[in-house]
């Protein structure tokens, strides 16, 4: 029943008041928990409107847009839509704006996108790698973990990106993370260090 309302909800998301747009984003998040709805919502043009809310919404609107986009981008077919809607530059801005308290959300969405070839190319093109390496040095434990996971996705089967993180000094923060990070961070950092070692042997 609610799935049939998706076009109307997207219309509100595009053209409603800020409060109505926040509510529309929150509703789309709830609906996107069902896999078949991820496809319908993505095809309905919701993603560009959610990216717009992520960039220019109220703080609640941004949070609602971020949770909806995270869910929608789990579905492979929506990753490219999100990239074409400009999500990478929106996320990068969230990572580099010191007043932004949504670094965690931005990294979580990036980690879902980074497995997709189109998204991977856009992430690298937007000069996100130096920002991720900075987060390895200075981020909160969960941010470091997500930054390492994204870097690993970008560097798997990609010697150019691997050489880039080596040049930018990733080895020291990765070595620290492999010893002192969360369990997941240790695994990701160790895998990246292993790839870097192999690169030096080529």
TrEMBL record:
Entry-linked InterPro entries: ARM-like (IPR011989), ARM-type_fold (IPR016024), ARM_PUB (IPR058678), Armadillo (IPR000225)
SMART domains: ARM
ARM repeat segments: 4-46, 45-72, 86-128
U-box domain segment(s): 7-198
Database matches in Gene3D superfamilies: Leucine-rich Repeat Variant (1.25.10.10)
UniProt key word Repeat: yes
Keywords, ordered alphabetically: Repeat, Ubl conjugation pathway
SUPFAM superfamilies assigned: ARM repeat (SSF48371)
Domain of life: Eukaryota
Protein name: U-box domain-containing protein
Organism of origin: Acer saccharum
Organism taxonomic ancestry: Eukaryota, Viridiplantae, Streptophyta, Embryophyta, Tracheophyta
């Amino acid at each position: 029943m609610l799935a049939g309302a998706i076009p109307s909800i997207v219309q509100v998301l595009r053209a409603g008041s800020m409060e109505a747009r926040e509510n529309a984003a929150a509703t789309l998040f709830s609906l996107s928990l069902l896999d078949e709805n991820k496809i319908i919502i993505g095809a309905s043009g919701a993603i560009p409107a959610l990216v717009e809310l992520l960039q220019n919404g109220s703080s609640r609107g941004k949070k609602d847009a971020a949770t909806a986009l995270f869910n929608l981008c789990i579905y492979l077919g929506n990753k490219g839509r999100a990239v074409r809607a400009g999500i990478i530059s929106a996320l990068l801005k969230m990572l580099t704006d010191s007043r932004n308290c949504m670094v965690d959300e931005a990294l979580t969405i990036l980690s879902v996108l980074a497995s997709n070839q189109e998204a991977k190319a856009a992430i690298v093109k937007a000069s996100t790698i130096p920002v991720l390496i900075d987060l390895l040095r200075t981020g909160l434990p969960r941010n470091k973990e997500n930054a390492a996971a994204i870097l690993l996705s970008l560097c798997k089967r990609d010697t150019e990106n691997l050489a880039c993180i080596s040049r930018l000094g990733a080895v020291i923060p990765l070595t620290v993370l492999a010893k002192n990070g969360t369990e997941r961070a240790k695994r990701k950092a160790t895998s990246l260090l292993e790839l870097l070692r192999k690169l030096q042997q080529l």
